Amino acid sequence: MDAFLLWFDEFWAVYSNLILTLGINALLALSIWLTLACGLLALANAAFMGIGAYAGALATMNYDSPFALSLVVAMAAPSLVALAIGVPVLRLGGVYLAMATLGFGEVVRVVILNTESITGGALGLNGIPQQTQWWHVALALAIVVFMLARLHRSKTGRAFEAIKVDETAAGLMGIDLRAHKLLAFVLGAAIAGLAGALNAHLTFFIGPQEYGFDRGVEILTMAILGGIGSLIGPVIGAFFLTLLPELLRGLADFRLIVNGLILVSVVLFLPNGLWDPARIRNWFGARR
Amino acid sequence: MQFMRSAIVALAIGASTVASQAAEVKLGVAAALSGLAAQYGAAIRNGFELAAEEINAAGGVNGNTIKLVVEDEQGKKEEAINVYKKLIFQDKVLLIFGPTLSNSASAANPIAQAAKAPVFGTSNTADGITAVGNYIFRNSVTEADVLPVTLKTVVEKEGVKKVAVLYGNDDVFTKSGYDNFAKALKDQNIPVTTTETFAKGDVDFKAQLTKIKASGPDAIVLSALLAEGAPILVQARQLGIDLPFVGGNGVNSVKIFELAKGASDNLWVGSPWSASNDTPENKKFIEAYTKKFGLAPDQFAAQTYDALHIVAEALKKVQLSGDIAKDRAALRDALPDVSWTGVTGPFKFRQAVDKSGKPAGYDADQQPIVSVTKDGAYQIVK
């Protein structure tokens, strides 16, 4: 037992940050899953993460707010922004929505760059106290998964599903399209903001370039790669994408090449994502 | 690269079998070997490998061989933290060199400070890096130290009375370069005719340059990276602006001669290292580096090369006990007193202070060399 504890102490010292990042990335993947589950390709989650990170970090640093309050601020700020831009932007569909939300992400980045007195501009915010503990992330992930699971099975969740499959038919059945889309968008923003604040209070530092296009694509990839058929998919996708580069560390210079090869094979052989129960059942069926 | 690394490992193994009692001193290197900062990371790794090879070939430090544990931190803050934790707690290195970017350093250095493991930055030039604590060292001379010297030299040599300023406002490096230039201009009472900005990825700077030309300065202060700095030079010369440009570290690279072919003259830069500096140490370094890697070294390689020698000097005074915590503390205590004349000239540490004015980590105390570009080469200004 003592040997195990000793081993665990060392393991935790080395990998605690990675494990917390797993949880935070899972939250991000879930945040975009919400809009994807509603058939919306909105790519503003990196920007919402940034708004949450800055709002939470500024609350902690400038107003000495307790961590819980900072997290609430970090969820409220992007939600309000999402509410404001969601009304006009969600009238768009398909690639037009993707373009508009990408544009919004750029706007957020430029605003952060130019409000130097508050956000530190290009230099970022330095010296954020490290307050995120493992159980904060675990609890946040558990609550979000639980609430999303409940939502998925509720009337609202069914409405999301209906909108995803056929928007016109859903509208004819009496589903309020605009209200449901807006709800998915705002909830997604709140989750992304929460993830942003947890990350900011873990890494001592945030800068505007962290919440740009690259991060947006990374979040989308995590959700799509995991599979958006259920809640488990995005979480698995986030774990997979975060762990893979670390597991391949031994390969040194070939690491990113192998990393890329694995991702391409996953997309080729598992087009519906890693978590695809029907396909997995099929594999075992064929073997029998 | 892979081949070279195995060659070094083989060399290290060979050396350790010769001296049977010799131990290995493990030093970590956290560098951006992939991602956007990979070009810097590659030079950084080369510099360390060359220095380690030389030190080990000469018998190591007190008979102990130096073993580098190189990890890729991709230029990302999360990766830098992961790498630091691996190096400190799993590989149990005595000291960590790195990370490549100042942003990563802001995120990862507090981890090392808390674990009482020394960190030695070779490329972090941002303000406040060493304010984290007394385990943080760097030999990269900050822009705050270099830019005033460069500016002063240009003013003296070219009789500059007033300047125009052009900088990138969406990049950490160019923005903090601008802040330091602005402070230096104010301290030296040089009036600014106009201040213009651009963003990363811009390709046309004619609007800003025309405005600058109209404001009638004697020189242009430029805080840019190579990607924007080179076209700015070209377009300025096209517009008939023959004024001297005063640049920061971002445009201090031999690549400028290629990227701004025919328009690269009259750019003034300052750095502790210059390829044209012909001290015996520097000549030997350039020759060995070119022979080993088949390309010319840059200042990143030069600074890492010196960094390992500085740490080796400190290690000579440390009696290694095998207890990693004790040895790290002993190395930390030995480092501040090291003085070393390497490829970047005479070097010693200067203690920095944190936000509340308390003594913290250690910055480089070094005199920069100012050079001006002429006919595709740097000429040292004496």
From TrEMBL, chain A:
Pfam families: BPD_transp_2
Main localization, broad class: membrane
Transmembrane segments: 12-33, 40-61, 67-87, 94-113, 133-151, 182-207, 219-244, 256-275
Assigned keywords, A-Z: Cell membrane, Membrane, Transmembrane, Transmembrane helix
InterPro entries: ABC_transp_permease, LivM-like
Name of this chain's protein: Branched-chain amino acid transport system permease protein
Membrane topology, record value: Multi-pass membrane protein
Location(s), subcellular: Cell membrane
Lineage: superkingdom: Bacteria
UniProtKB/TrEMBL annotation, chain B:
Domain Leucine-binding protein residue range list: 24-352
Lineage: Bacteria, Pseudomonadati, Pseudomonadota, Alphaproteobacteria, Hyphomicrobiales
Assigned keywords, A-Z: Amino-acid transport, Signal, Transport
Name of the protein: Branched-chain amino acid transport system substrate-binding protein
Family: Belongs to the leucine-binding protein family.
Listed InterPro entries: BCAA_transport (IPR051010), Leu-bd (IPR028081), Leu_Ile_Val-bd (IPR000709), Peripla_BP_I (IPR028082)
Signal sequence region: 1-22
Superkingdom: Bacteria
Gene3D superfamilies to which the protein is assigned, alphabetical: 3.40.50.2300
Coiled coil: none
